[in-house]
Specification:
CATH topology of the largest domain: TIM Barrel
Family: Belongs to the glycosyl hydrolase 1 family. Klotho subfamily.
Bound molecules: 2-acetamido-2-deoxy-beta-D-glucopyranose
Largest sheet: 8 strands, parallel, barrel
Keywords: Glycosidase, Hydrolase, Membrane, Signal, Transmembrane, Transmembrane helix
EC number: 3.2.1.21, 3.2.1.45, 3.2.1.46
Number of domains: 2
CATH architecture of the largest domain: Alpha-Beta Barrel
Mean pLDDT: 90
CATH superfamily of the largest domain: Glycosidases
Radius of gyration: 28 Å
Strand content: 5-15%
Structural class: alpha/beta
Pfam families: Glyco_hydro_1
CATH class of the largest domain: Alpha Beta
GO molecular function: beta-glucosidase activity; galactosylceramidase activity; glucosylceramidase activity
Number of strands: 17
Length: 584
């Protein structure tokens, strides 16, 4: 008790010291609940995002090849409810409609991804280029530009061509680097006159860990302890190669930028006075974002990763570390291959030190020696893993600033989901999430972090990977049960729109009124959705009533056809016998 009092007093002292040295807004640093009224720098870019497999549908149309997600989602038991992205939001057919939603929001940019197998069906450029696929992205890009919306284009949002998986083992194989580079080069050649922001990979952490270590994502491999490190190694090299391709062959003509989008949850020490917790939290972040960012900005893996994976590998009796190494030539080739850093951020964890024995072999999650905790008071409206902890966002951004030399940052993903059956368009929890997270980003900019743009995740409800359609991240609600896939604005559309038009948060009075107005409009949208759903349920019932008719018709064919045939055979037999008799 006494000790606790002493630490408390110390905290207060530190707080007071900080305050006295601070600028006017610095009080926000030690007061998590505080709200900062102010605006973003002029030219700050506001956007929303999507990805190909999650929204396009048309999975086997117009010459598209299969991706690992097409194949994975068609296997039973891999995705919640055995759902697939076969039709999803049908965005492949709805360019105009989606652009009108983007315009409604007054977005400056729209982030989407190009499906590799849609434009190169086998994944190998020399096999075949699918012009129909190119046409689709041409029309999307052109329509965006006609409406003054900047396209930000991701090259790899998890949909590897299946053939490359079957033939080479996907990202386990070093040959992916060249195939990916050829695909990227084709995109620069065909779209680069109009696209100026390129993201090589979206969240390579998930590709490596969930695709090759836990197997929760396509291709569903469980290569514990080695698969993720190897996949990540090739992805980092592929990223660097594509950056160099752009830098050497396209930059002078096209004047664009090439970056990568990394996922980064923040890790906060459980006890900020405990050195072990502080180090554990640092490890958590280094094994997460640092795994990719440190090679790209400094040329090699984080020291702490090399140490921990190396030591655990030795304890297992392995001759070399399970974490691959870069040659010195590779280190200098990879270092500095980032014109801007994309960050996808959703949540935060408390971290404490926890040692895992190496007896049963190593794995990514035990190599780190950390345990993750959450505060039960943190709001948790949707996805199980997604707790709203706005202050973690500012900490992560400041970490990135100091660790990687204050790079230009685009927030490429930030948002919150709601549970499946929720047809509630009055999403006040999402309004709250955006309001607070965007405010923490504003504070980070005041701290000196170079954030240039923000991408709300996501424009539409969509296929949420292994969670199927059970988690909804959209600003717009999509009625997936209706084959027309109609979109309905949630209240957060109105709220986000106002942040954009004010370029920030002008005053308390105004921001409060936005929230009020946003929730006013959503009840009419709710009624619209409810009416439409009633109508489609009625249509379904009609279909059910029709069903007995069709099954009756099936019965007719099933019984009548064989009966008639048998009769015919019998009759001809009798006729034959009659003929034979007459001959006699
Ligand atoms: C998914 O498919 C598996 C295997 O066929 C089946 O056991 C399971 O019940 C299915 N799940 C749903 C929700 O249909
Ligand atoms: C990579 O692909 C080649 C060609 O199919 C194959 O010979 C090699 O074994 C693969 N390497 C790995 C690590 O899978």
């Amino acid at each position: 008790m006494l000790l606790r009092c002493v630490t408390r007093t110390c905290h207060v002292l530190v707080l007071v010291l900080c305050l006295s040295a601070a600028e006017d807004f610095d009080w926000t640093k030690n007061n998590h609940g505080s709200f900062y009224y102010g605006t973003f720098p002029t030219g700050f870019s506001w956007g929303a995002g999507s990805s190909a497999y999650q929204t396009e549908g048309a999975w086997d149309q117009d010459g598209k090849g299969l991706s690992i997600w097409d194949v994975f989602s068609h296997k039973k038991g891999k995705v919640f409810f055995n759902d697939t992205g076969d039709s999803s939001c049908e965005s492949y057919y709805k360019v105009k409609e989606d652009i009108s939603l983007i315009k409604e929001l007054k977005l400056n940019h729209y982030r989407f991804s190009i499906s590799w197998p849609r434009i190169i069906p086998t994944g190998i450029k020399s096999d075949h280029v699918n012009e129909k696929g190119i046409e689709y992205y041409d029309s999307l890009i052109d329509s965006l530009l006609e409406n003054d919306i900047t396209p930000i284009v991701t090259l790899y949002h998890w949909d590897l061509p299946q053939l490359l998986q079957d033939k080479y083992g996907g990202w386990q194989n070093v040959s992916m680097i060249n195939y990916f580079n050829e695909f990227a080069n084709l995109c620069f050649e065909r779209f680069g006159n109009r696209v100026k922001y390129w993201i090589t990979f979206n969240n390579p952490w998930a590709v490596a860990v969930e695709g090759y270590e836990t197997g929760e994502h396509a291709p569903g491999l469980k290569l514990r302890g080695t698969g993720a490190y190897r996949a990540a190694h090739h992805i980092i090299k592929a990223h660097a190669k594509v950056w160099h391709t752009y830098d050497t062959h396209w930059r002078s003509k096209q004047n664009g930028m090439v970056g990568i989008s990394l996922a980064g949850d923040w890790g906060e020490p459980v006890d900020i006075t405990n050195q072990k917790d502080i180090e554990a939290a640092e490890r958590y972040v280094q094994f997460y974002m640092g795994w990719f960012a440190t090679p790209i900005f400094h040329g090699d893996y984080p020291q702490v990763m090399k140490e921990f994976v190396g030591r655990k590998s030795a304890q297992q009796g392995l001759g070399t570390s399970r974490l691959p190494t870069f040659s010195s030539q590779e280190r200098s080739y990879i270092k500095g291959t980032c014109d801007f850093l994309g960050i996808g951020h959703f949540t935060t964890r408390y971290i404490t030190q926890k040692s895992y024995p190496t007896g049963r072999g190593g794995a990514y999650f035990t190599d780190r020696d950390v345990a993750e905790l959450v505060d039960p008071r943190w709001p948790d409206p949707g996805s199980e893993w997604l707790y709203a902890v706005p202050w973690g966002f500012r900490r992560l951004l400041n970490f990135v600033k100091t660790q990687y030399g204050n790079p230009d940052i685009y927030i490429t993903e930030n948002g919150v989901s709601e549970k499946m059956m929720c047809t509630e368009l009055c999403d006040d929890w999402r309004i709250q999430y955006f309001k607070e997270y965007i405010n923490e980003m504003l504070k980070a900019i005041k701290d000196g972090v170079n954030v240039k743009g923000y991408t709300a995740w996501s424009l539409l409800d969509k296929f949420e990977w292994d969670e199927g359609y059970s988690e909804r991240f959209g600003l717009y609600y999509v009625d997936f049960r209706n084959h027309k896939k109609p979109r309905y604005p949630k209240a957060s559309v109105q709220f986000y729109k106002r942040i954009i038009s004010a370029n920030g948060f002008p005053s308390q009075r105004e921001v409060e009124s936005w929230k009020r107005k946003a929730t006013e409009t959503c009840s009419s949208s709710n009624q619209l959705l409810a009416a439409e759903q009633q109508r489609s349920t009625a249509a379904n019932i009609l279909r059910l009533i029709h069903d007995p008719l069709t099954s009756h018709m099936e019965m007719v064919t099933e019984i009548v056809v064989p009966t008639v045939c048998t009769l015919c055979i019998l009759l001809s037999a009798v006729f034959l016998m009659f003929l034979l008799r007459r001959r006699k």
